[in-house]
Specification:
The complex is a heterodimer of chains A (about 230) and B (about 270). By secondary structure, chain A is mainly beta. Chain A has 2 helices and 11 strands. In chain B, about 20% of the residues lie in helices and about 25% in strands. Classes of the chains: A mainly beta (about 230), B alpha+beta (about 270).
Chain lengths: ~230, ~270
């Protein structure tokens, strides 16, 4: 007796194995949307060869995220495709062999992941050992991988940004050639409001300069800050 | 012969005893145990394998050994107190526990179950099992000394082992997660095949505080293309497909004289 794999297309009629990965915004742009992979995810597929494949695909839901840096490309596309390939290969490998065999006598059959169950019957009519493989469609359809190495953190959260007081003005005095010049900057306070663990939280992000130019031509300001009206 | 704790068990020669049990104390009415019919609230993200398995029909002198961590081995046998020292079996199988009240039992101890046919080329089944409380078949003590002996393997008790405060962070690997769950169960001999780094790392899907461990062990194996087996000596091995195929073929090479009487490989090359 020798067990050798068969074409799994003949056994399970599976054409390809796919992983559905949700997308994650890694652009730091809160308005960023992902139309090419709407609604924010991507389906990765593994198809071994046309000769061995069947008619239908099997899709698994992944916890691994597809990190997006722009509208067209992902940061970890290759990593997730490699994950899909190795999972697809292993998933289909387990389905290459299917058997149900009954042997005379009580046998100490070695355990193997291919055997769904080993059954021994010991009575007057039959003394047998039976082994058989898993049901053809046996599967768990939720997967729990994660690509920590390429995960993006920081501002790529579903946050909304807004400006609020205080606004700041400051002046910097330096030398341009032989002339002493004072430039004036105005900063606005940028905040973000995010949903964190179900709570709406507002956090300070940074000061954004909204004006950074030399003062008007002509005589330099005599002193003090050049005041802009607050919008 | 069949022995439990080195005591002989009965062979149901005519099938009459099985018929009696099915008729009067059927196990589809009083179940020897209950299995989960859904993964449980915390494990809903893991889900069950596709399709539920129904409880197999009662069969006397049948022993079943599944693969995986979530299912356990079991069998139903008969003991006749005229031939079997049932008191010894009970004393050995139900020991005292330090947690039990004085004079009370509380611990299940492993006892050997042996299924042996003298003409099987030296092969036999010898495993450690746990005895469920024996069921007397007769309502009149002393008239009929037959007891239904239901046994299970250690995986039955794995469901009482929880994974503790399991909280996945970026430092976790599949290997460390395997070790955590195996340790939670208390598996002494635990081995896994190598895990391809393309499987990345476990996600926070496995943040399953104080959930029952067996399902989680099966889910880990599925995520990395492996399956869990428990060997007859109690060791646990998470196998890749190639290892599983080799184990199967090596076993048959070692025992070339096995006699196949029914069934075969599905989809052979030529019909």
């Amino acid at each position: 007796v020798s067990f050798s794999p068969r074409l799994y297309g003949a056994l399970t009629n599976i054409k390809n194995v796919s992983l559905w990965c949700q997308g994650k915004n890694c652009t730091n742009d809160p308005t960023f949307t992902t139309p090419p992979v709407a609604p924010g995810g991507k389906l990765f597929s593994y198809q071994p060869s046309a000769a061995s494949g069947g008619a239908y695909g099997e899709i698994f839901k992944e916890t691994a995220l597809f990190y997006l840096s722009d509208l067209t490309s992902g940061i970890n596309t290759q990593t997730l495709q490699a994950l899909c390939d190795i999972f697809g290969q292993d998933f289909l490998a387990w389905r290459q062999l299917s058997f149900d065999e009954v042997f005379n006598h009580i046998l100490g059959m070695a355990q193997s992941g291919l055997i769904d169950e080993t059954i021994w019957n010991y009575n007057a009519l039959e003394v047998i050992t039976r082994i058989f493989t898993y049901p053809p469609h046996w599967s768990i359809q939720e997967l729990g991988h994660f690509d920590y190495a390429k995960d993006c953190t920081g501002t790529a959260l579903p946050c909304h940004y807004y400006y609020a007081p205080p606004n700041l003005c400051c002046s910097v005095t330096g030398t341009v050639g032989a002339t002493t010049v004072t430039t004036v900057k105005m900063y606005m306070s940028r905040y973000k409001i995010c949903l964190e663990d179900g709570r709406l939280v507002s956090r300070f992000v940074t000061y954004d300069p909204i004006c950074d130019c030399p003062p008007p031509s002509g005589s330099p300001p005599i002193g003090g800050a050049f005041m802009f009206p607050v919008p | 012969m069949i022995t439990l704790d080195n005591q002989p068990l009965m062979i149901d020669v005519t099938g009459e005893l099985e018929e009696f049990i099915v008729k009067f104390i059927p196990t589809d009415q009083y179940l020897p145990w209950l299995r989960r019919s859904w993964p449980g609230f915390g494990n809903a993200g893991l889900t069950y394998p596709t399709g539920m398995r129904y409880e197999p029909r009662f069969k006397l002198n049948q022993f079943r050994w599944p693969t995986g961590a979530s299912r356990w081995a079991y069998g139903h046998f008969l003991a006749d107190v005229e031939a079997c020292n049932l008191q010894k079996v009970i004393n050995d199988a139900f020991g005292t526990s330090s947690n039990a009240p004085p004079g009370m039992g509380g611990a299940y101890n492993p006892i050997p179950l042996v299924l042996d046919t003298s003409d099987s080329g030296g092969e036999r089944l010898n495993v450690s099992v746990y005895l469920m409380p024996p069921v007397p078949l007769s309502g009149m003590r002393g008239v009929n000394g037959l007891y239904l002996m239901t046994v299970v393997d250690q995986r039955f008790f794995w469901w009482y082992n929880y994974v503790g405060l399991l909280q996945i962070t970026s430092g976790w690997t599949w290997t460390s997660l395997y070790s955590w769950v195996a340790s939670s169960i208390g598996i002494v001999s635990f081995k896994t095949d190598s895990i391809d780094p393309k499987y990345l790392q476990p996600s926070t899907m496995f943040n399953l505080p104080y959930e029952s461990a067996p399902q989680i062990l099966d889910a880990i194996a599925f995520n990395v293309g492996q399956r869990v087996i428990r060997n007859y000596d109690g060791s646990v091995y998470c196998q890749n497909y190639t290892t599983a195929l080799k184990a199967l073929n090596d076993d048959f090479k070692t025992h070339p004289n096995r006699i196949k009487i029914a069934g075969d490989q599905r989809f052979p090359d030529k019909l």
